[in-house]
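Fold Annotation — chain and its backbone

Encoding — discrete vocabulary of local shapes
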Amino acid sequence: MTATIISGKELAQTFHEDIAQEVQRLRKNNVQPGLAVILVGEHPASVSYVKAKIKDCEKVGIHSTAIRLGERTTESELLAHIDKLNHDPQIHGILVQLPLPDHISEEKVINAIVPEKDVDGFHPVNVGNMVIGDECFLPCTPHGIVKMIKSTGTDLQGKHVVVVGRSNIVGKPVSLLMLQEHATVTICHSRTQKLTDITKQADVLIVAVGREEFVGKEHVAPGTIVIDVGVNRNHEGRLVGDVRFDELKEIASFITPVPGGVGPMTRTMLLYNTLESAKRHQAVTHTG
């Protein structure tokens, strides 16, 4: 068996086309979706992520504003920028690129963004609504993963989904979204015993541990859908995931590549959330 590649790049393109059409429709009704991205410092990966996000906005017609602040920007200065954007009717989504310098509290910054503009889906109000299944902005990577799995035609009801990793950004929220799809979910982490025994039971295996090529053929049963969330540089400087792609592509039914897998869909869900925010704004404006 050779796995079918789930190309996040190709799937993202399809979503871009749909989002662009929706943006055009909103613009005809005098609503221009707007996203503000704040970058503090010059972290190389963050700089490239922000550039990619701005480029994505241009592709689909979303207005974007990049606010670049120096490494020594104080927490209060950053919070003042967020407060201004919270009150800006032209901005429907606010994203502060993480990680932040050590002297700035990520928690305070995330909490400062009003939930209705929190297109990253990190605010406690959005997280709480996700837990109980109410309307909210879903975090972009988990949301993208759901879309990727569904693109294979797989019905998740009753499937055993094993998630390796328990971060607040991927592991925990993707587990909740899988539960909402009526899957049976097991979460594994650094203290899990007999990891291989558990991962071999998976119909869908989602790996988000940030460890280079951590999962291999010994972890996976034939026919498993493998979603690789990791982005690591190996000793040759090449981007690799958390799974050994060359091994698993001979065992899995579907597998995501690195790069070109989960990453493009994460950025696309940011556009999706910004569009949703603009649509909600339009609905409130019209009913008001």
In short: DSSP finds ten helices and eleven strands in the chain.
